[in-house]
Write a structure and sequence with these properties.
The chain is about 40% helix and about 25% strand. It is of the alpha/beta class. It has a 5-stranded mixed beta sheet with strand order 2-1-3-4-5, sandwiched between helices. Helix 4 (about 95-105) packs antiparallel against helix 5 (about 130-155). The longest helix has 28 residues, at about 130-155. The chain is elongated.
């Protein structure tokens, strides 16, 4: 028997995925809230409380507001739960089925307005499992289409992320392509196994100074090949044996402690010598 003195929970959810927008503006959180409030008042239901998950996928059930609502159900605080439709609840029919059983066990009346489902009217529950299954299939189908679309876009040479990485900017004439950011202090290094030289193109001031000094001291090993006074970019070629990358293993905890203790000791010795 439903206790109408308890909370009437109005649950709203909106995902960033197109699969959860079902037509765009009509499913906005604000419109869901208004829709549910009007319905609850029309049914003379009081003690309304909103549970809202914005920017949350229906494929996952660890959503903050949803979890809080289910805790309140288990703790006997909620008497009625209203949603716009079953897709707001989630897109995993097994999880939705389990939640419906929790509602039944705690005597919570459940209403999915647009699906015409009301747990106080058993005949309206007959098609709920089919609706849940179709919702899950729809989410998986959309996910597959999105992945295919991203892969196709990448294969065409277009970026698949919205922001350009450091060293690049969006082409002002074509937002689907990136161009080199001439103001960024980036360094390009390229070589192959057969070529005896490594080619360096850099905006980094420290590296430019070091390579310039090295080229002056060892012209047979390294030379500057180009410079752009407008951007500050300089290009060099250097003998492969003279340029190296040093890879170091991360410190162990023991080594970190030893280094910290050594640094403290040296600082203490330096302080005493100054005094």
């Amino acid at each position: 028997m439903t206790d109408y003195s308890k909370i009437t929970a109005l649950y709203s959810r909106l995902s960033v995925g197109d699969e959860d927008r079902d037509g765009g503006e009509s499913n906005s959180i604000q419109n869901q809230k208004i829709f549910l409030e009007n319905y609850a008042r029309g049914q003379h239901l009081t003690n309304i409380r909103h549970y809202i998950d914005d920017d949350e996928s229906g494929r996952f059930f660890d959503r903050s507001a949803y979890s809080r609502m289910m805790d309140d159900v288990e703790n006997g605080k909620i008497g009625v739960c209203i949603m716009k439709d079953l897709t707001r609840w989630g897109r995993d029919y097994l999880q939705v089925g389990n939640a419906m059983e929790i509602f039944r066990r705690n005597n919570v009346r459940f209403i999915a307005v647009n699906n015409g489902i009301d747990s106080e009217k058993p005949d309206t529950l007959e098609f709920a499992p089919f609706i849940n299954i179709m919702s899950e299939w729809y989410a998986k189908d959309i996910s597959k289409k999105v992945k295919t679309g991203i892969k196709t876009k990448g294969m065409s040479g277009k970026p698949i992320v919205t922001e350009a990485p450091y060293g690049y900017v969006k082409d002002p004439d074509n937002k689907d392509f990136w161009i080199i950011d001439e103001e960024a202090e980036i360094t390009d290094i390229w070589f192959d196994e057969k070529d005896p030289l490594i080619y360096i193109r850099t905006h980094n001031t420290d590296l430019k100074n070091r390579l310039t000094a090295y080229a002056a001291a060892h012209p047979s090993e390294c030379r500057q090949t180009d410079a752009d006074p407008d951007t500050g970019c300089m290009e060099f070629e250097i003998a492969k044996g003279r340029f190296s990358f040093r890879l170091t293993a991360p410190y162990s905890e023991e080594r970190r402690r030893a280094a910290s203790e050594a640094a403290k000791a040296n600082t203490s010795n330096f302080t005493r010598s100054v005094v």
